Amino acid sequence: MAAEPQSKDHQPLVRDVLGRGDYAIIGEIVEPGSRVLDLGCGEGELLEWLADNKRVEARGVEISRTKVQRAIARGVSAYQGDIDNGLVDYPDHAFDYVILSQTLQQVHNPLKVLTDMLRVGRKIIVAFPNFGHWRVRISHLTSGRAPRTGLFPYSWYDSPNIHFLTVEDFELLCRDQRWTLERRYFLSGNRRVSVRPNLMAEVAVYLIRSSS
Amino acid sequence: MIVDRKIVRFDSLPLDCGVTLTPVDAAYESYGELNSKKNNAILVCHAFSGDAHAAGLSPETGKPGWWDNMIGPGKAFDTEKYFVICVNVAGGCRGTTGPSSLNPATGKPYAMAFPTVTVSDMVRLQKKLLDHLGIDRLLAVAGGSMGGMQVLEWAVRYPDCVASAFPIATTARHSAQQIAFNEVGRQAIMADPDWNEGNYYDLKPPARGLAVARMVGHITYMSDDSMKEKFGRRLQGKDGPAFFFDDTFEVESYLRHRGSQFVDRFDANSYLYITKAMDMFDLAQGGSLPAALEKAKARFLVISFTSDWLYPSYQSLEIVSALRSRNRDVAYCELASNYGHDAFLVEVDEQTELVRGFLARVFKEM
Q: What is the pLDDT of residue B237?
């Protein structure tokens, strides 16, 4: 493992930002005054929060027209486009951080997206729901059907999630790609998880940079 | 709210073609109050056939301005917070010096002796006026269509004077198709014998040619859907026309009406000069668009409309993509609309949501 879980150094409970634990962690990671690109920025809530509280230069990409409208109406520089091809225009290292929050499981080509992110960002922050969580495993085992939990509430036919990855899967990929895991955080609700994250974490948040 | 048009006369305006206009009048209207810091000024740039009357009611005609639904108290460009200015473009015919103005050298209207004007000449005249008003930096420059071209020009020519730029339903350069439509309009005017090489000011104006030009224009401003909705194949009268080629369909009579209305308020020579200025406009000046836009420092909000086939979204995306490639601050949204190019004038609610919020943020950051 490239980095140790840092939960020992922190309060076990994270205060949430805009009702979300992963946002709180992102808010903690992002340095004031930095340049931030949020992929799948939704209505721009996180970017607005970062602009207000961390004075970041905030940009967003979002596929949904109505969400882009809301984001722009908040004053966020959101761009209507899809993440799979959305980063082509940006020069290398245009941003200090590129954020992909709870969207990795929804993009068509996750590896390409992550690679693009590492090109345009000095560092990237990736948060995703952990498909290895015990509730997901039990749901699948007991029902014999595609798992449905609080974290994965959709039926198989109307789910926006097209890739199902676990903490283990993601870290294997990072190792294969020789990306450096600078920090990682595991959450169950608003509580930090320190043991057996692949089983216990609902959400994982990673801060990564490319090794080169 | 009745608004007054003001005219400021400047000694001279050097043009891109090398000629200097002496003197030059700039007709403008303004709405709201300039604050003491002079940081709440917004320049709104009109489209091809527009004029300085952007908002409020004209004392002459009693008609609302062309963007009255967007400019006013509590509206997108809120005149309770902001000071909004609109200037008739150089080469125009609504108070600013153009081909119908008197040429001091001859004491007669310039007509075809008027020098060629460019979008950057239009912008230079606006800059002169803002200097005259003591405004160093604009909170925003906004406009659709040809107005959007001026917005882009402002952003790269005077990067330190523009905090935010709103190019709407526009392009960094005309495509062959856009030039082609303009050329049909120009040829319609010049084919009218009344045009008389541009010398018609003490005779009959080329009303038929200008009307046909306007009819073509109106077709390009609408969409297949909006025309279907507005006219369909509905007939003008129950019994049909007396003469077979009278206006049988509602769409025909609409276009004829719009054409003849236009003649009363627009000068045919201005039509020629201004459409040519649009066709000649190329923000990149033959070079690369990213290199041109690299000079810009403003926050951009680019808006296009789904059914606008005259200024299609791909042209807005070229601007957005060039800005992104130079890491410039740009927001982009393609709004859903059936109204074609006219959407920027009529899709008020969604544009208001975007403009109001974005503007408020920029103002806060000033």
A: 78
Catalytic positions of B, please?
145, 308, 341
- Per DSSP, the three-state class of B329 is coil
Which pair of structure tokens corresponds to residue B33? 């109050």
E strand or H helix that includes residue A96: strand A95-101
Q: Is residue B185 included in any domain, yes or no?
A: yes
Number of domains in chain B: 2
Q: Do A69 and B331 touch (CB under 8 A)?
A: no
* Any A CB within 8 A of B324 CB: yes
Structural domain span for residue B220: 178-276
Domains defined for chain A, CATH in brackets: 7-129+164-210 (3.40.50.150)
Same domain as B309, residue B166: yes
- Residue B137, pLDDT > 90, answer yes
Q: How many CA atoms lie within 13 A of A7 on its CB side?
A: 20
| B330-335 and B299-305 beta bridge pairing | parallel
Of B276, B308, B325, the last residue of a domain is B276
Look at residue B1 and tell me if it is in a domain: no
Q: Residue A1: what pLDDT?
A: 39
Integer CA distances (angstroms), B350 to B104, B332, B333, B337, in order: 47, 13, 10, 10
Whether B233 and B158 map to the same domain: the answer is no
The answer to whether B333 contacts chain A (CB < 8 Å) is yes
What percent of chain B has a predicted confidence (pLDDT) above 90?
Answer: 93
Q: A167-175 contacts: CB < 8 A, separation 24 or more?
A: A167/A130, A167/A132, A167/A197, A167/A198, A167/A201, A167/A204, A168/A132, A168/A198, A169/A131, A169/A132, A170/A126, A170/A128, A170/A204, A170/A206, A171/A1, A173/A111, A173/A114, A174/A2, A174/A206, A174/A208, A175/A2
Residues B285, B272 share a domain: no
Domain end (from B223, B242, B276): B276
B298 falls within a domain: yes
> In this predicted model, what pLDDT tens digit does every residue of B327-339 receive, in sequence order?
999 999 999 999 9
- Given CB atoms, is A78 within the 8 Å cutoff of chain B? yes
> Which tens digit of pLDDT belongs to each residue from B176-217?
999 999 999 999 999 999 999 999 999 999 999 999 999 999
Inspect the interface and report whether the beta carbons of A79 and B325 lie closer than 8 Å. no
